[in-house]
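Annotated sample (chain length 115).
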Amino acid sequence: MHELSIALSLLDLAAEEAARRGGARIVAIHLKLGPLAGVVKEALAAAFDLARTGSALADSELVIAEVPVTAYCPCCAAERTVVSVQQLCCSACGTPTPRILQGRELEVVALEIES
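Output written by the structure step:
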């Protein structure tokens, strides 16, 4: 399960930042996650809970914001959500949309830190 290695990496990143700030407490790690990232949200949350147990970040929280898959629709000439991950078509007109704009994210966007 690669979600555990991702959770451990998130904790390492947060611990490094806490150390850089003189031992500040990490309250939360905020993450953007797209369905095309290849990570299962629930598995990552469970792995994070497991990985933080007994660590210096045992009280920290993982906040996951899900990002929809959007693509550029050449027919509508606009950014649109897709019908589904399996069917990359414009949700407005049904045109196939090969140019994916978002939905691959696995990105730390913020750390909530208490001094």
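Annotation: The radius of gyration is 17 Å.
Annotation: The chain has a mean pLDDT of 95.
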